[in-house]
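hey can u check if this looks right to u? its 271 residues, i copy pasted from the old doc so theres a chance i mangled smth
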Amino acid sequence: MITWNPPLGIGPIRFYALFWMIGLAGAYFVVQKLYRDQKIKEEQFEPLFFYCFFGILIGSRLGHCLFYEPAYYLSSFPHFIEMLLPIRFTDSGVRLIGYQGLASHGGTLGLMIALWLYVRKYKVPLWTVLDNIAIATPVTACCIRLGNLMNSEIIGRPTSGDFGFIFTQVDMLPRHPAQLYEAIAYLLFGLISWYLYKHMPRKVGTGFFFGYCLTTIFTFRFFVEFLKEVQSDFEVGMPLDMGQLLSIPFVVLGVWCMVNSFRGKSAAKSR
């Protein structure tokens, strides 16, 4: 068993935020190399990071608030403002608390909308952009889960096995380190994606890598949820939790994209 009680950060820098930025920076350099490999103009690449950053951040925040805590955030105007700004209204005044609560499903939707806006403005084929971003996405997903691990959040259920983490900030029960399971899986998916790209570079623009990313990440997310504690009270007693229900459409979309990429019916033909 591993007793887990790391510091939350170094001085004012929180580990969660640090891993978030490392993940985005890693994805930035991966996509930059992909754009150069594909001879896409530098001026078309430069604004991509900002679209991705704000799409993920806004989508993740709205996803958490609307999927997991809608009763709170939609109950009053001050709570609605808390959904949009990193503040909390208290009896003693307004506190700056940061964005406490981000949802990966919302981040994925936000990213897809942001990329659609990017494509409309900078005229890069949509499926080329989606495939390139998908190759880099597991890097960011891995780092975000490592940030969750450092925060002792999204913890697993208690385990009676020989391996587990005791999250002392939560309780003294040995639990599945579900965050670590996800981080390792996403890193593996990313390495496989890069291997496939090196051997099938012409698949970029067919939707294959986008489909592969959605299928692998959200299939794993569906099954690892069985090892997690529920995230919200309303999920207690549900046969499938909110994370699983939200994962299903992404898996279906991912499989559809992969199948169509091999049938030659990808959107690349209808740009």
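The chain has one domain: 2-192.
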